[in-house]
Amino acid sequence: MSAFQELFGVEPEATASAPGRVNLLGEHTDYQGGFVLPTAIPQRITVSLSRNGTQEHVLHSASTDTTLRVLLGEKGKGFAPYVTGSLQLSGVQEGLNVLIEGKVPSGGLSSSAALEVATLRALRDLFNLDLDDVELALRGVQVEHRFVGVKCGVMDQMASSLANTNTMLLIDTRSLERRSVPFPAGAEVLVIDSGVPRRLAESGYNERRAQVEEAARILGVKELRDVQDSGVVEKLGSPLKERARHVVSENARVQQGLQADAAQFGQLMNASHASLRDDYQVSHPQVDELVNLLQAHPQVFGARMTGAGFGGAVVALVREGRAGQVARDVLAQYPRGKQLVPEAAT
């Protein structure tokens, strides 16, 4: 008997899954029309659905053994809005049983996007929705904006919907054009959780977005992606100058990374972290400590925080075949961390 049948007494009518993602370069640029370079991680979230003939949704998270009941038209609390928002935006007008299995670690690896994309994929199958993978990702973004309260860009949902673990995915977040980009030769990806939890809607994420939007308005451009001369941002007052400087320089780093070898790509990651720490001010002292340990390791090309910040995970580009060794060495000095991607992402 399946876990779904044990819980709900019937087999699911649809099941789908989606991966988390880690971003190598291009942080906090996607809501300014910029460029990003994420890749999918092995960890996935699976969502199974069935109709239940009632006026409420019954949502169960296997990882926390938590069941939530939410009436039609309500969004609920906890993890519910990621699911109920997906249901409401998809026009679901009947109660569903929902089982969420698997786990994408929270904190910079897009666990919420994976949940949204998996839910929307299952809904697409159950109700034969006319949604391609890009439209599905954009619907996930609307879930974040309208139901969760995070004014995110499009990267997380696009990566969860379209990326794989074998390549990076270059996304132009304005046009939504994308293409696969190989990892630098001789390198693999290591992801470590800093042990510092975060909550985006309660952090400075929305404040940062408002600041760069104001910077773009003052500079007379639609988005900071349109700034051609990085020197113009120096005319802004603080903190808008620093916020805009990060976005403009980060877009440039993504472009430089497309032709970089492993050593050059690592240096770009190091510079990205410094910019996120100093100009965008979204890092955390413990995250910086972990990044510093990684950057100092002889088998590491470069390392940075990943995700929106204020805690969460860090990502390192390490010499191929050495991720396990690097993780053991670093975690011996940083015991509150946890290795999240134990094998090469390449």
Automatic annotation (TrEMBL):
InterPro entries: Galactokinase, GalKase_N, GHMP_kinase_C_dom, GHMP_kinase_C_sf, GHMP_kinase_N_dom, GHMP_knse_ATP-bd_CS, Mevalonate/galactokinase, Ribosomal_Su5_D2-typ_SF. Residues 91-162 form the GHMP kinase N-terminal domain. It is an enzyme of class 2 (transferase). Residues 260-335 form the GHMP kinase C-terminal domain. The keyword Ribonucleoprotein does not apply. GO terms for molecular function: galactokinase activity. Pfam families: GalKase_gal_bdg, GHMP_kinases_C, GHMP_kinases_N. The keyword Nucleotide-binding applies. Keywords: ATP-binding, Carbohydrate metabolism, Galactose metabolism, Kinase, Nucleotide-binding, Transferase. Its EC number is 2.7.1.6. Residues 3-51 form the Galactokinase N-terminal domain. Belongs to the GHMP kinase family. GalK subfamily. This is Galactokinase. The gene is galK.
